[in-house]
Amino acid sequence: CTLRSTADTIQKHAELSTIYNLIHSAGLDDLLHHHLPFTLFAPTNESLKKLNDIQVRYLRHDEGRKDLEI
Predict the structure, then answer these.
(1) How far apart are CA 16 and CA 45, in angstroms?
(2) Rg (Cα) of the chain, in Å, rounded?
């Protein structure tokens, strides 16, 4: 059994690419590469399509990072 990081797991699922990119843009992807047990509630790309462009830009900006932090 190979222990995978959370980053490895979500990168394998195309439907989670948007949330991974937002996490990466916020500089939080290093946290996901640790092999620590934790739960990540990750919306799918389909769910994130419901956000408007302003909301997505906010999440990619430094101010929005706090909303992505665990």
Answers:
(1) 6
(2) 12
